[in-house]
């Protein structure tokens, strides 16, 4: 019973590829039974446009998001019976106003769920490039401890204000940290680890599901997000997990899932959760799939993951 709740397409995201329908068709071809569509929410300040969006305005982003929801609804109707499609969005937190806009956006489009992600620190883009990451380091005077503290503090605010159903790449702040150059892992420091632990506890308290995101391997990290130190803590506290490919086009659907499932099995994480539309009332609920990572489960369900 494969699934993913974190996906993008080039039709509505400039750094992804292809059209949204191809993402859905790829999921069907790989025997997924549920896919959550989660294009990025629009940004409302011109200064927050990325270089790839230099020919766009913030109004264009909002128009594109409106088009995304309309297309997702069309696809949900078209592929009824072949795959369950949930329509969500991946969050941003740039300023406090961003969160107010997100609440309104969710209500306006009646989104099924949110992937709660942080892509900025102190209003500066973190994961766009090594250069953008380094600019944040410089903003904090080279003090990575302060940078990591700010990330987890802003993440908590997002969790408190929006209560996203899925926690997106919990420790994305690690994406360009130069571990291979002998620079200390800030999360090895008790002060920062305590902040991450605080956020884990809060997310668990309201019933969030943490994604284990295979895209980290594409970025050269040792483990999927969250890295194993934090995943161990989430599991030890009874946190619920799911899997996602964070696909940026049809070519990424199911990316590294064989490796991901082996990793989770190694970690003793056998149960996976998934979002599903309840039969009565149409509300979204999280269900559990027992022993989902054990050897042979996915193969016996006819699933072949892409590498």
Automatic annotation (TrEMBL):
Enzyme class: hydrolase
Annotated Pfam families: PHP
Catalytic activity as recorded in UniProt: L-histidinol phosphate + H2O = L-histidinol + phosphate
EC number(s) reported in the record: 3.1.3.15
Record key words, sorted: Amino-acid biosynthesis, Histidine biosynthesis, Hydrolase
Record carries keyword Signal: no
InterPro entries according to UniProt: Histidinol_P_phosphatase_HisJ, PHP_dom, Pol/histidinol_Pase-like
One GO process term, biological-process aspect: L-histidine biosynthetic process
Entry superkingdom: Eukaryota
A GO MF term: histidinol-phosphatase activity
Domain PHP per the UniProt entry, residue ranges: 5-214
Gene Ontology CC: cytoplasm
Keyword set includes Amino-acid biosynthesis: yes
NCBIfam families registered for this protein in UniProt: hisJ_fam
Similarity comment: family membership: Belongs to the PHP hydrolase family. HisK subfamily.
The name this protein goes by in its record: Histidinol-phosphatase
